[in-house]
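SAMPLE LOG
Freezer: B-3
Tube label: C17
Construct: single chain, 160 aa
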Amino acid sequence: MSTELELAFRLDTQLTEVMRLRVQSLQQRGQKRQEGERLLQANEVVYRLDFVKQSLQFSHWTVQLAQPGRLVITATSQLWTPDLTNLMTRQLLEPAGVFWREPPNAPNAPIQCYDADATEFGERIAELAMVRKVMYFLFEFAEGCSPETIDCSINFHVDK
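STRUCTURE (predicted):
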């Protein structure tokens, strides 16, 4: 028998600020990023997921966009330790979760996504939950989407 567990993505303002300061520091000193380094873009924010259980099976995504827009969620691998190293491109996992809501001509339009990619992405997160207690994600906001207009969580089955 299994139960459902919903884990909400939480904004990590401290890590986002540290990554923004890295970009600012490079710009002020006129330096380039390290080879392979992934700098945080202006429309990206860092979120985290804290796993309260380790043995999970992906069930589904719960994504709400209050207005039309596009949200791209990219996971970081278990090899990235933000307190020790800069984020490198090779530490980003694929596929990303891409969710969007069409423009206002359809106000009650459902949230859309690339189903196969979203499912594979959820399954990879469940696999990584076995070895991680915390996982970090880059949320990219586009086309009218912002941190204030989203609510995002991921649902798992937990075996009893």
